[in-house]
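Pasting as-is:
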Amino acid sequence: MSTLTNKIPELLCPAGDLARLKAAVDYGADAVYLAGEEFGMRTAASNFGIVDLKEGVKYAHDNGVKVHLACNTIPHNEEIPRLPAFLEQVNDIGVDAVISADLGTIGLVKKYAPDCELHVSVQSGICNYETANAFYNLGAKRVVLARELSLAEIAEIRAKTPKELELEAFTHGAMCVSFSARCLLSSYMTGRDANRGDCAQPCRWSYSLMEEKRPGQLFDITETDKGTYILNANDLCMAEHLDKMRDAGIDSLKIEGRAKSHYYVAVTTNAYRGALDSLAKAESDWKCPEWVMEELNKISHRNYSQGFFFGTPENAQTYANAGYVRDYSVAAIVDGYEDGKIIATLKNKFLKGQEFDCLEPKNKPFIVKADVVYDEKDNEIESAPHPMMTVKIPYPHPVKKGSLLRMKAD
């Protein structure tokens, strides 16, 4: 596959609420994506009311970061009358792009949010250049490609679509077992419609078999006594292959996770920012910095795979359990630095002598050891036991506000 461009792709990061938006911006996002209180595919996230949306857009724009708003559910009749007013507000606030999947919604976006770019959601299942061109002819500035595509297929789409049409693809995060996340399983089993943002994630549950004439008698699908997680897809991680994604012609790399934590957003944004900055400086063959993958292993995640990018997935699922790996927790968030001390707000208790792995915005992690700890009144303390208390830790160099002090799990 030949290099089409040396342009470094945009880093597009999730923002489930205002705090996570600020984390994404501070840690190096080029753009963030979020949703309002309706019409977005992640009702589990806090999402944005109009007041927070205004503040979030201002914070992002003040820092040179774009804001994309997901309006990508498949709305029913009763929701349609509320869409025009919502889109007018979004347009007036200055959102940079609206992400939609439904053809009717796309028409309303063009009419009521004319100052916003139109981006077509992954929910539309764009797998070929004819579909990409069709959406371009409907006014799309960008299409989010189906997750089921290989890099070779993406390169062909790039070659057979206008250069003005931007291509976006997921680079990291949870994978859906259904095609481009268009799943009916949650609605069928729980009444919660995944296509309206309310997925209960039954693909993560444990399953057994039951024979028709033996109701209540369960048969293990595997040889264990715990059933099997036959639908449990592993997480996507393409950090070590960003050069190949760039070479395929992808304009924007998207991190999944609007329902994930502030910590997840900070770590993934910082890691991919570091990887992309390294790629930008590479003059020949590029190798992902080791610390990037070390960071991505410090967040709660399932086993990593490369999805469909290199063809039929290998290591695509974990069958034995729900698959989460959790090795680190956040002990405190840095509020500032004064008189040779880090000042931080406690999130999880720790004892004097604790060694922290400090994640500072747009920086490689480094070690901070709490050989001495003070409370907010400068009394020396043996432990920090109360969440939200202020702690002070001597350290020889200033540490940026918003940095995370992390502890390795026992």
